[in-house]
TrEMBL record:
Annotated NCBIfam families: flgA_cterm (TIGR03170)
Domain spans labelled SAF: 313-375
Organism phylogeny: Bacteria, Pseudomonadati, Planctomycetota, Planctomycetia, Planctomycetales
Organism: Crateriforma conspicua
Name recorded for this polypeptide: Flagellar basal body P-ring biosynthesis protein FlgA
Pfam families: ChapFlgA
Domain of life: Bacteria
Gene Ontology biological process terms in this record: bacterial-type flagellum assembly
Length: 444
């Protein structure tokens, strides 16, 4: 009974302890600040500033002209199209792009509008949407050139270059005496507002400034630029020719126009130039005129210069790689050009020096074949059992022998007979055959 009463007294105490422990545990773990709302927030709409950050592609428009007249044979994008809504810096780059050339002797050309779109894509490389307005076909005519006394089109490129290089006149110009050919020009030269460019009309031809000829340093620089441009645009043709600029008054005039250029943008031959394929087609140096387009400060500069093309010597080369021991045939050979500074004494342009001979050196495709890389074919090899023929006095004796050396046709080699074993010198007569020629006996 005492034990049961003691157990009943301890039971409320244990219950109270358990409740207190549970309350402490709940108070330690539960923190109102850590309670978060598990409801998913609705996505926020993008702000107006984020939408404005996306690039918006503007529409470029070009208006094609129906007909136009040019002073040069080079047709550019700025001559046949006008921009509408195109940035100024972009149009500055595009307007100088070459579209084509007016054929020599015809004086006119027709250009489709699709070629203009190709020129814009090639020059700018942009994916901007472009809208073309105007006719689908453009007619370009070459303006007839008149003498300076009857020209109304304005100054020539050489005169404009002289105006740009000449020093600017002061605000007030004084003329001591009027010119006889233009008595009223002295009054028009005096100006107090702004400097006036000198007249280019035919009434006063002596008043046009002429640009000084370029210095040797400028000429050397222009020659280097022109050669590099020609070689870059005609790589296959320039493998056959040495490009030099001819010494002529026409080239001096062209250099005078190009002396202010900062580079060469385009070169084109006025006549077709075909490379030679055989040494017989080579001739003296030829002269060809080319149109040169330079990069000027105020825009493209067009000029014409004359090139002197000197053909490179042609030498024999194999059409395909040839192995050692290969006997050369006619269909194995061709000709390749080699510059004069790369010529060697063992190069040859005559195929007869190689036909029928055997390759003993290096023979690569389209590489010059040297005479030292070939040799007469070996008809007898060392260790071969050959037929030995002894001829003399109308008697011919044949026996078997062993070759002790390699030999080609008509070469002397050493042989050894079988019975009896004797060594002697014989001449190679054919493949597997050697001969010994003796003198006929003389009767005294």
């Amino acid at each position: 009974m005492n034990q049961v009463a003691a157990a009943n007294r301890c039971q409320p105490t244990s219950i109270a302890r358990s409740a207190l422990f549970a309350a402490l545990l709940i108070g330690w773990c539960w923190n109102p600040s850590t309670i978060t709302c598990f409801a998913q927030e609705s996505p926020t709409a993008p702000s107006t500033s984020e939408l404005n950050d996306e690039p918006v592609k503007s529409l470029w428009r070009f208006r094609c002209v129906g007909r136009t007249n040019l002073e040069t044979t080079v047709i550019r994008l700025g001559d046949v199209a006008e921009p509408i809504g195109v940035p100024t810096d972009v149009w500055t780059r595009l307007r100088g792009g070459v579209i084509g050339l007016i054929p020599v002797g015809q004086g006119r050309a027709r250009i489709e509008r699709d070629r203009l779109a190709e020129a814009v894509a090639r020059s700018e490389g942009t994916d901007q949407p472009i809208e073309w307005i105007g006719p689908d076909m453009i007619e370009v005519s070459l303006r007839k050139q008149h003498p300076p006394s009857q020209s109304l089109a304005g100054p020539s490129p050489l005169q404009r270059l002289g105006d740009r290089l000449a020093p600017r006149p002061s605000s007030v110009q004084k003329v001591s005496a009027p010119n006889k050919s233009s008595p009223g020009i002295s009054a028009s030269l005096a100006s107090t507002r702004s400097p006036v460019r000198q007249s280019t009309n035919g009434s006063a031809p002596t008043s046009m400034p002429v640009a000084d000829p370029p210095s040797p340093h400028v000429v050397s620089r222009l020659e280097s630029w022109i050669r590099m441009s020609v070689q870059r645009q005609n790589p296959e043709l320039m493998k056959h020719y040495d490009v030099q600029l001819a010494s002529s008054p026409e080239n001096l005039a062209g250099f005078t126009q190009l002396q202010s250029a900062g580079g060469i943008m385009h070169t084109s031959f006025r006549e077709a130039v075909l490379p030679p394929h055989e040494p017989s087609e080579q001739s003296t140096p030829i002269r060809r005129a080319i149109m040169v387009t330079g990069r000027g400060v105020d825009g493209p500069i067009d000029a014409q210069v004359v090139l002197q093309l000197k053909p490179h010597p042609m030498v024999v080369a194999p059409k395909m790689p040839l192995r050692r021991g290969h006997r050369i045939r006619v269909e194995d050979l061709t000709w390749v050009p080699v510059p004069e500074d790369q010529q060697r004494d063992d190069y040859s342009s005559d195929v007869d020096d190689f036909i029928g001979k055997e390759i003993v050196g290096l023979a690569r495709q389209d590489a010059p074949l040297s005479v030292s890389a070939v040799a007469p074919p070996v008809l007898i090899h060392r260790g071969d059992q050959i037929e030995l023929r002894v001829v003399g006095g109308g008697v011919r004796v044949t026996t078997m022998a062993k070759a002790l050396d390699d030999g080609h046709l008509s070469q002397l080699i050493e042989v050894e007979t079988a019975e009896p074993r004797r060594r002697m010198v014989a001449r190679v007569a054919a493949s597997g055959l050697a001969e010994i020629v003796t003198r006929s006996p003389r009767v005294r």
